[in-house]
Amino acid sequence: MSYSVGQVAAFAGVTVRTLHHYDRAGLLSPSGRSGAGYRLYGDTDLARLQQILFYRELGFSLDEIAEILKDPQAGALEYLRARQRQLSEEIGRLQRLAEVAERAIEVQQTGVELTPEERFDVFGEIAFDLSYATEAQLKWQDSAGQRESMARAAAHTKEDWRQLMGEASAWRAELLAAFDDGEPADGERVMDLAEEHRLHIARWFTTCPPDMHRRIADDFAADPRAFALVVPPSQQRPGLAAYLCKAVHANAARRADPEEDR
Question: Which of 58, 77, 175, 217 is buried most, with the most CB atoms less than 10 Å from its CB?
Answer without folding.
Answer: 217
